[in-house]
Amino acid sequence: MIGGLIAAALVYAVAVFRLRRRGVDWRPGRALAWYVGVAAAVGAVAGHEHTFREHMAGHLVLGMGAPILLVLGRPVTLALRVLPVRPARRLARVLRSRPIAVLTHPVTAGVLDAGGMWLLYTTGLHSAGPLVQLHLLLAGYLFTAAIIGRDPAPHRPGPAVRAAALIAFVAVHGILAKHLYAHPPPGVPALESEPAAQLMYYGGDLLHLVVIVLLCRELFPSPARAWRLPTAPARDGFQTPSA
Amino acid sequence: MARRNNLASGALLGLGIAAFIDETVFHQLLHWHHFYDKSTPAVGLVSDGIFHAVSFFAAVASLFLLASLRRTGSWHPRAWWGALLTAAGVFQLYDGTIQHKLMRLHQIRYDVDLTAYDWTWNIIAVALIATGLVPLTRSRHTAATP
Fold first, then answer.
1. Among B16-20, B109-113, B117-121, which range has the highest average pLDDT?
2. pLDDT value at position B125?
3. What residues form the membrane-spanning segments (chain B) (predicted)?
4. Out of A163, A171, A181, whose CB is closest to B49?
5. Fewer CB within 10 Å, N or C, chain A?
6. Residue partners of A23: CB distance under 8 A and separation at least 6
């Protein structure tokens, strides 16, 4: 898994390098987000967890912290720009396909993410190794991209659906955290599950807040940021006197 | 449209603030409320989770909405404040009656006689609603005759 993550960072770096050599700009912030996201995921995978609380901290980073950063890195946009025409078209075709539309829908992605989490903590699965970590990271990425992704996604539903899916996810996350508080997963003593559940609740909230702010930035665009989106239609009401 | 956005922004922020005060003051600072007192039925836990998520989202969205109202000069403080106070009161009343009492999510405080706490809680809620309804109804008249 760590090998795969390092490869992801290297491929991204090569892509940015090639793009730059062609004279196409790629905002450094996106690259930074990608590298920090990969580093965070590596840290969470490599970290030694002694208590259930440390275990939970690793899962928060892997399932939500790293995915937010990776989504901000806009890997699909980068791929579409750097690939030669033919493979780029193929990739675009895949993005438009039916299975991708279903998989990247906020509801599907949310069920995969929250459902996986629920299974993980209500059974003894949470201590199972790399496959669980991989699922956390991928499902976390899929859901975050479905809610706040800026990469091209022809099927992305409107803001109301995405906001509703996010609210439902935050609710399930909070309910699961409180459930864990009272019902520790098999093999975990209550003394360990209580602080872990609270970390899941409050740490999760902090990361949800980041996602909510990023979604609201899109829902309520500000003219002050409009200069960054040259293709956006001109907004009236920029300096209108009181209506 | 502007009035509707003013009401939405105020009400969402009222909900968010009431939930925020509940979380920081009573849970975190005073430690009166328990994180989860383990005597809650499942429905209470679900209700709590949904309310938490909605109020969290509402607080952020309301501030973005307020910023856009201010930017376009269509912020009507009277309607906005009225909606804020009313919504905060409604949340407080829901929390104090349905969540605390009916669903027994958690109590205001433990190991004390709750009667005074419950009455204070709910009277404040009703007072908030009453205070909010005054500017809210007035703002309707001014909206009709600008």
1. B16-20
2. 87
3. 45-67, 79-99, 119-137
4. A171
5. C
6. none
| A170 to B57: CB separation less than 8 angstroms, yes or no | yes
A61-104 per-position pLDDT tens digit? 999 999 999 999 999 999 999 999 999 999 999 999 999 999 99
pLDDT: is B67 or B51 the higher one? B67
> With an 8 Å Cβ cutoff, is B1 touching chain A?
no
Indicate yes or no: CB of A171 within 8 angstroms of CB of B53.
yes
**pTM listed for this prediction:** 0.83
In a domain, B146, yes or no: no
As for how many domains chain A has, the answer is 1
Q: Chain B, 33-72: which have a CB under 8 Å from a chain A CB?
A: 35-36, 38, 45-46, 48-50, 52-54, 56-57, 60-61, 64-65, 67-68, 71-72
Query: Can you list the residues of chain A whose pLDDT is less than 70?
Result: 126-128, 223-243
Q: Domain range for residue A71?
A: 2-86+97-220
Chain B contact probe: residue of A220, A235, A238 with most B CBs at under 10 A: A220
Q: CA geometry: angle at A11 spanning A132 and A111, to 5°?
A: 30
Inside any domain, residue A228: no
Identify which of B2, B52, B71 has the shortest CB distance to residue A171: B52
Domain annotation covers residue A183: yes
Q: Assess if residue B38 is contained within a domain.
A: yes
Residue bearing the bigger pLDDT, B62 or B32? B62
Q: Which of B2, B53, B64 sits opposite A174 (nearest CB)?
A: B53
- In this prediction, residue B33 carries a pLDDT of 67
Chain A positions touching B52 (Cβ under 8 A) are: 170-171, 174
Which chain B residue lies closest to A178 (C-alpha atoms)? B36
Host domain of residue B34: 2-141
